[in-house]
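Fold these two proteins, one after the other.
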Amino acid sequence: MKFSLLSLLITAFLFTGCQPSEKQIGDMLKKNPKLLTEAIKANPAEFIEALNVAVKSAQGDQRQKAETAEKKKLEESYKNPMKPQMRADEVIRGTKGAPLTLIEYSDFECPFCSRGYDTVVKLLKKYEGKIQFVYKHLPLSFHASAMPAAKYYEALRLQSSDKAVQFHDGIFADFSKVKNGEKFFKSIAKRIGANMKKLEKDLDSAIVKKRIDEDLAEAKKFGFQGTPGFLLNGIPVKGAYPAEHFDGIVKELKKRGLVKL
């Protein structure tokens, strides 16, 4: 005769005069784990069904906890927005001093950053005259071309902001070639009319290294480990979310009286 686990437990404690406690059940199973395996063998379909229900329930609980924690973090960020450094010589796209400030911590080799670039372009167009955008560096160690690209961007910035912007856009416009590394970066630099001698001199300069190190430290401070990471008026966005996600933040900022457009 086949017995369920429940039947086995009831039989085992039938003469105790009271219901078994969780500790008693646990102790019994430790002493005789075959009780559990025999019950599973006797009722495999019921066990799998119960296990699936338990897994789904646990996943639902985890999702709910994660969503609650995320909402709490978001609420805190509206009350205490993050404050990134805005250096005097930042490359600013859009309207300098605009009420909306979008900062991106990015990796030139990251495919998700390519999507992030498309989102930035849409936001600059949609909020034209009301937004300023700053690109900052978060080259990931497992992307071989990311750090060299960041150096090229910063070395070109020392020549002019326009050249840095053209280099930035040139990479994402022809993103499939980024893995070609320096050959690709040089071709963009030549096309935009860079001073190649100065570029070569500045690539490994202390000023370029310091600039990238500052961005890396700031990204770490704000909890950005992957790319892209954004701050919209100090509100963090981790990942390549579509423009509509940022629209929601803008609406919330307006609702709370934190920005006037």
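Now the second one:
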Amino acid sequence: MAVKTVEERIQSIDAKIEKKRAEIEALEAQKQKLLHPVTMRTVMAKAKGLGMTAEEIAKKLGIEMD
């Protein structure tokens, strides 16, 4: 078993820290989705809040309303 240098051990620890940071970011994103879910109702409410009509929303979505 080879003995690792201090620099190698530090690099190993830094790599582990980065991996954990990425995991934390993914968990934070999941938490935000749970706290602020995107539903059709919220999307429509925001669009209406911006002054869009139902027809404008349909047009932007490429939906033809006859």
